[in-house]
Automatic annotation (TrEMBL):
GO terms for biological process: fungal-type cell wall biogenesis; transmembrane transport. It comes from the Eukaryota. The chain crosses the membrane at residues 193-218, 379-400, 421-446, 458-479, 562-582, 588-607, 619-638, 650-675. It holds the Pfam family TRP_N. Residues 928-938 have a biased composition (Basic and acidic residues). Residues 762-772 have a biased composition (Low complexity). Residues 48-190 form the ML-like domain. InterPro entries: TRP_C, TRP_Flc/Pkd2-like, TRP_N. This is Flavin carrier protein 2.
Amino acid sequence: MRPWGGLFAPLLLSLLAFATLAHARKVEYSSGTDKHGVTRQLAADRYPALYTGDYRDCLGGKSLFNISKYDAAYYADNMTIVFHLEGSSNIENESLMMQISVDAYGTNRFDMIFSPCNLNIASLCPLTDSVPIRAWAEIRVGPQQIGGIPDIAFAIPDFEGATKLQIFANSSQTEIGCFQAVMKNGVTVSHPYVIVPFMGFFTVVAIIASFFTAIYGVSIPHMRMHHGHSLSVLVVFETFQEIFLSGALQVDWPSILVAWRTNFAWAAGFVWVHPFTEGLASFTGITGNSSQVGNAGSILNKIGSGDVVKKIYGRPLIKEVSGAIMKRSSDFNPNDPWAYDWNGNPVEPGMPLPGTWPGFPGTLSGIHVPVADACLIGLIWFLIAVALVWVFILGPKILLEALAVIKWIQEERLSYFRSHWVGFIGQSLMRTIIIGFLPIMTLTIFQFSVKNTVGPVAVAAVVFFLMLMGLIAVVGYGCRSRIRNGKFSITKDRAMFYRTKIFLVPVWESNLKEHEVEIKSVFSMPFYRIRHTYHDHPEAHMDHDFIKKFGWMSARYRRTRWWFLAYYLGYLFIRAAFLGGGRASPLAQIYGLLVLDIVNFFVMTILNPFESARNTAMGLYILNICRISTTGISIAFLPGFAVDRIITTALGIIIMVIHVFVVIALLILITLGALSARLSLLRNREEFSPHWLDKIRIRWFERMDERARDSWKPPRSHVKKLKEEELALPPQPYFSVATIRRSPKIEDEDEDNQTICDNDDSSSSSSSVVNDLESAQVKRCGRTVSIKSARRVSAGSLPRTGRQSRIFWSSREFGDPLLDRPGSQLAKRLSGINFDTCSIVTSNTSMTTKAGLIKPQSSLQTMRTARSSLTAVGSMIGSIEMRSGGGGGSGTNTPLPSPGFIVDESWMSSKEGALVEATEPPEDDDGRGEKMKKQEGE
């Protein structure tokens, strides 16, 4: 079977290749020379340098033609202009003159007048109602004729230009047809099929992170704190909405901005679906045929005398046209190798003229949405989003219950969410309404200015009233429930602005006076602060009932700014009024919006409402700066200023670059928010993987707790000044215990004392000294270490009674009876002191010196000996300080080597003046105790 299988596969591939070649269209080649004199072989189906897109009647629907196809192109590689026209007319018989022109960036770049008879276009020579119009011609032009089109126009994104074809009747010398199409070069920044899924993925990540931080946990204030530090979904949608809704300004937009905004129309509720547009056409009063353009009726028209069109008939026809014909086709065949697929389509009724982008209609034309349908389309997608919120909440609820039933998860897993899922639906719906507030208000107000049928205006009025009044009522009720008790006070204050490395940061003058802080302010603004005090009521972020009902309103904001959403909704409403209602007065619209955005930025900077640093960076600084810069630059697009279109395109590129940086910053913050959400969801785990993130997690939680407390902080410049003042003070001598080390003991060898050693170690580890010094190690009582210690200890250092009984002697066997009494002063004084070395650190040399301390003794005589030993240690410390220059802190300090005092019994017995470990001998009749006391005295 293998030989046959080996032959079958190549045979099948050969048949497939033959079938592909059989159905492949034959490619024709021709020779062409560009304006630089370079000759090359050119494929007939290549893309032109400039070509037309969608087209429309430019006589306002009064052309005497019904055109179903209008395409034109310019091939730079052989300096050829091609146009293709198909349609019909009700004119009985008329000879024509035609003009084709190309406008690019507000300037006429090419203009040619010709007779269709000179191009052998039979269907237009003459024009009759019985012959359909099918014109296709290829015209060669010279370098002088296309010299106005620079080479950069073939590569710049979203070429701004239009091609206009005008038809004139010779008998009356009047214009009877005009068709305009937008020009393209194949390079664009509009990629909604790629960018929309990409942005949608990050948006879903932000939604999931915000949702799970809200439902995970048991303590409501703790859940609110973690949810408040996740990236706000409102901020995410506001960023995308700002990019698109900034196109509602009534200015002449450059084409590159219109194309760029198509990538973010979905965030404002604009997803173009052709059945939606067709279904709403009858309700919104849009009439027309989307398959053709023109207004040729069924009544035959005869052209009579009329005014002379001097533009056409006042100058001679270009003679070179008759000899410039390269190829003509009276009957266009789409299967011809010269066919193309770059053609445009008739624009939808209600759209602006192709090649122009005026105001909000021009922005909507980029997504093929007529102006009259904008409000209803946005409302429909908003209702779809509300329905998706229900599914998004009910889905996890049903899934968790099913997993709990089949025992795949614990019964108490996410129990709070499973028992309060209805409340979470209400909270999510309110947040969704707030997200859609700005676009819905903008569209409804814009609908009032559109002269159309009564139906869409009535729907817009109802939606406007319900959403505005509903939010005012709900937000007002939330604020009232919080402040209905207590006292109000209005105090006069000033916002002091001081300079940092980048921004001017405000601070309240009352806080500076309260904390006795002085700063150098750049300028100040007077304000009146409204204070509400109610001492018996918990704070907004600790009030469980308030969080359950109005967490959607206050969860993202600081403890003292829980009411900020009430102010922000007012700002959004005024902004929507400017965007949607300023169509009649562009100057008032754009300047009013600029002032509003600047004032809002200053107010938000003073209030600093967000609890999370990421929300502050994005929602306060980046987004507001984007709004102000976009509106400010857009002033140059006002029609009254008549700025050159090349300059406006450059300014449009600057705005697009600003938007790109804003979007990049948003995506980075979404990624960081997802990572921090993971830390929040794993906050109850003792072991965290990867381990190197554990310290970051701890710092993150500490930072979160600090931000949640919302305590006042002095300006950084003031803190830096205090640190510099502290560093300027002369150093003072000091010592501190840095390390503790326990040396092996003789009694560690006794098996019967092993338990005592362990108990002694545990008691010492719980002492206050060990608690203060985290570097203390667990004390070992191993046999190997004790043997080494026993080798260093000589038997001669032991008392005689200890030497006669055994070499391993312990002072614990001669314990004082007072130590058995826990309440005795001796036991209290000696408790927890079980270390042998300490570190002495001087401020002048930063030198660590180890000196021996006295082991706990079991008698008053031992305590006296220990006191004398400590005196010896003090004398050594003083000598170290004198040698290191301590006390005054002046002069050059010479670092000294660490003495490294390690005290053991052998060192004590061999060195004079050493710290001797004194023991109290047992009382006996032979007087050995008195003898030992006498030896100690000597």
